[in-house]
Amino acid sequence: MQAVSRRLGHQSLKPTSLKSVFPLYDQYNGAADQWRYASTLTNSRGVGNLVRKGTGGRSSVSGIVATVFGATGFLGRYLVQQLAKMGSQVLVPFRGSEDSPRHLKLMGDLGQIVPMKYNPRDENSVKAVMAKANVVINLIGRDYETRNYSFEEVHHGMAEQLAMIAKEHGGIMRFIQISCLGASPSSSSRMLRTKSAGEEAVLREIPEATIMKPAVMIGTEDRIMNRWAHFVKNYSFLPLMGDGSTKIQPVYVVDVAAAIIAALKDDGTSMGKTYELGGPEIFTVHELAELMFDTIREWPRYVKVPFPIAKAIAMPREVLLKKVPFPLPTPNIFNLDEINALTTDTVVSETALTFHDLGIVPHKLQGYPIEFLVSYRKGGPQFGSTISEKISPDSFP
Ligand SMILES: NC(=O)c1ccc[n+]([C@@H]2O[C@H](COP(=O)([O-])OP(=O)(O)OC[C@H]3O[C@@H](n4cnc5c(N)ncnc54)[C@H](OP(=O)(O)O)[C@@H]3O)[C@@H](O)[C@H]2O)c1
């Protein structure tokens, strides 16, 4: 834990009695002096054997009490919605404004979505948000570094800390870590290298943890199609890194949330396994951009930016980030780590476990998953026909 504290950049905290952190600890655990926090997830058969009540809808009881770290983000809203829809209680740790988890509250029955303010750098507050959970899901991640938080701390240090606390907890039946497709110690992107270190750290602590590695996610709040469309509306062209021939396998965000739920609901077969979650089709970056241009009904205009030039454009932010006494703008299209990641193809490997192994057929992107792009359409959203109207319903699973 000291190593984690060092990585998290704060002083090691004194071990604290759980009773002081959770005042109702005795009440919930019966025996006052029995320390339940000792085992790992070993021998657990997942949450498949939890007592369930009801028909499986949002007013049922699934028995799952999940703490979802990073629930306030893009994937978080779809995951919380799917958890709540089956009658799970979802504890939503949030930092900053009370508004950040507000949209999640309505997704479940009264009292089922519980926002809890926490500080990821305070071990006790992390313990408090995990105290009553039997499932922990870690979605915490960031595509860029800030003055306050490095990739190493967010992707590695925090994941390791959550796994250690979950292991000490003893009542956690499933730990699911969300990483990224392409995360590996040899990746050219520092962000992906730290994601890989996070996976390793989690598995070191909890070998039964499930790792999900989604490809770039597409959906209403995504950070690829929206950014491209926004850029095109402002500047009438799209910068294409390299020559746009890098292969990617974008995936619909709802499918990724469904994969997490499927893993949670199984009898423990997904425990200790790593899944690579890519969509049904492989696109080059250029082909994906064509799809975006087609949907927003703009004439496709590209400016090909060779990788060295793209990196040179993105570099000043990285160099100056910790040197200037004020925050720098969030990187948008020219994000050094994303550019580095785009220098190699990122597709699901042939031997990997995938959606198929979780019993899910991922959606094609053409159609509903990219329908949100019509809001960028010249002449208003109603202008012309959408892609989903143009393709046959049979091709949309
Ligand atoms: N989006 C993609 O295309 C994609 C693709 C592959 C993998 N992933 C991975 O999937 C996970 C979810 O992605 P997403 O798109 O939903 O991410 P997102 O929208 O950026 O949300 C990230 C979440 O992490 C939290 N977070 C970020 N930095 C934090 C910090 N320093 N301390 C505490 N919490 C912090 C954010 O909390 P705040 O709201 O408080 O900032 C937010 O809830 C991430 O791990 C990401 O790396 C994403």
Provide a descriptive summary of the structure in words.
- The chain is globular.
- It is an alpha/beta fold and 397 residues long.
- The chain starts with a helix and ends in a 7-residue tail after the last helix.
- The protein has helices at 2-7, 18-21, 25-29, 74-85, 102-105, 123-130, 151-169, 190-205, 225-235, 253-265, 285-296, 307-320, 336-341, 387-390, and strands spanning 65-69, 89-94, 113-117, 135-138, 174-178, 210-214, 217-218, 238-241, 247-248, 251-252, 274-277, 283-284, 302-305.
- The chain has a 7-stranded parallel sheet, sandwiched between helices. A two-stranded parallel sheet has the order 7-10. A two-stranded parallel ribbon has the order 8-13.
- Strand 2 (89-94), helix 5 and strand 3 (113-117) form a beta-alpha-beta unit.
- It contains 14 helices and 13 strands.
- The longest helix is centred in the middle third of the chain and has 19 residues, at 151-169.
- Helix content is 34%, strand content 13%.
- Bound molecules: NADP nicotinamide-adenine-dinucleotide phosphate.
- NADP nicotinamide-adenine-dinucleotide phosphate (NAP) is lined by residues 70, 72-76, 95-96, 100, 120, 139-142, 149, 154, 178, 180, 214, 216-217, 223.
Main attributes of the structure:
397 residues; alpha/beta; seven-stranded parallel beta sheet; 34% helix; 13% strand; NAD-dependent epimerase/dehydratase domain-containing protein; ComplexI_NDUFA9_subunit
